[in-house]
Amino acid sequence: xxxxxxxxxxxxxxxxxxxxxxxxxxxxxxxxxxxxxxxxxxxxxxxxxxxxxxxxxxxxxxxxxxxxxxxxxxxxxxxxxxxxxxxxxxxxxxxxxxxxxxxxxxxxxxxxxxxx
Length: 116
What we know:
Blueprint: E1 40-46, E2 55-59, H1 65-79, E3 83-86, E4 89-93, H2 97-106, E5 110-114
Parallel strand pairs: 1-5
Antiparallel strand pairs: 1-2, 2-4, 3-4
């Protein structure tokens, strides 16, 4: 089996090379999650770059990755659909903006409907 050719440093999987002996990479594990009432989440509708399939994208969450994943799991369960978390955004399959906004409002989040 042939080895994959490395074309850039990103192909190494996010390693950070530094000559500074005191360098410590930034992690968001210690990041505090703001309370729901302090956050403004945006509910977007999108079908671009997804083969025409519609998704609802939740943007604007401030907090740790584990809290973001927990919120995504709750939304997916309540809507009965699949989804994922990528680059700090929650992606829910299908156009469930109104239902998601209602769920987030009952949890205490401030929400904004964006687009269409």
